[in-house]
Amino acid sequence: MFEITTDAVNTAVVHVQGKIIGNTVTEFRKEIEQQLQNGNNKLIIDLKNVPLLDSTALGVIIVTMQILQRSGGKLVLLNPQKTVSSILEVTRLTSILEVYETKEAALNAFS
Q1: How many whole angstroms separate alpha carbon 21 and alpha carbon 16?
Q2: Can you give the pLDDT at residue 87?
Q3: CB 26: neighbour CB atoms within 10 A?
Q4: What single-letter DSSP state applies at residue 93?
Q5: What is the DSSP letter of 7?
Q6: Neighbouring residues of 16: CB distance < 8 A, sequence distance ≥ 6
Q7: CATH code, 49
Q8: What range defines the domain where residue 71 resides?
């Protein structure tokens, strides 16, 4: 469900596969918490293969963003599918979350 890669600029990329709803949110939260515990303060959440997420998953993303901001880090979202983009727009989270269509653009957000 999750694959973590680290880019040359020491940015952790969390590649998520499948829906982030129900019980999957708990796994998602644990994975994100693990990244924070590992000291990764630059996170990209790759949503390319996520067709749907629920409000609890959005909560995890927002809390993570706040934690990272307080510690001088940053969280960005990468390549959300159309449904996920719509959810982000309807909830107006695009006004507080940085969303990028390409990995290169997401990485440039940290420089």
Answers
A1: 12
A2: 95
A3: 11
A4: G
A5: -
A6: 1, 2, 28, 45, 46, 47, 49, 50
A7: 3.30.750.24
A8: 2-108
> What is the predicted pLDDT for the residue at 9?
67
Q: Is the pLDDT of residue 65 over 90?
A: yes
Residue 22, burial from CB neighbour count under 10 angstroms (0-12, 13-18, 19+): exposed
Under 8 Å CB-to-CB from 28, ≥6 apart: which residues? 2, 16, 20, 57, 60
Q: How confident is the model at residue 1 (pLDDT cuts 50, 70, 90)?
A: confident
Pairing relation of β-strands 98-100 and 74-78?
parallel
Q: What does the pLDDT read at residue 22?
A: 94
Q: What is the pLDDT of residues 19-33, one digit of tens each?
A: 999 999 999 999 999
Domain tally, the chain? 1
**pLDDT above 70 for 8:** no
Of 11, 39, 29, whose CA–CA distance to 103 is shortest?
A: 11
Asked whether the beta carbons of 18 and 50 are under 8 A apart, the reply is yes
